[in-house]
Amino acid sequence: MTWNALRGQQIRVLVVDDEAPICRAVSLALKQAAYEVTTARSGETAFSLLKAEHFDILVVDLRIPDERGDVIFEFAAGEQPHLRYASLFLTGDISDQAAKLMAACKIPVLMKPFELDDLLNAVGSLAPRARDAAG
Questions:
Q1: Contact (CB, 8 A) for 89 and 108
Q2: Is 80 exceeded by the pLDDT of residue 8?
Q3: How much is the pTM?
């Protein structure tokens, strides 16, 4: 059980992916698992949302046309420091450059195509735990 769930609040997830079908599938799966989900299909939109709203978890594609996912991640961690430890990359990019970018960020990666159960498990592992709140 997550800390936010114990407090009666949904865990807020920002999903950033330029592919509409991926955004839709990820959003639906997370909503069915009782997460509150906001989606962004561009880096620009993600930046605006991260400045204006609190998110508990960030799920971000590495390749977005207007901004790289690692740049979005670093911005998110700057705006909301807890996201440095509560973010997940989604990518189908298996290039050496992509591997270096992801390794530098030190966050989990889910390779596309992925199973929705794997996504839910990865996001669930990032959710704040009740014991952390008791701290």
A1: yes
A2: no
A3: 0.86
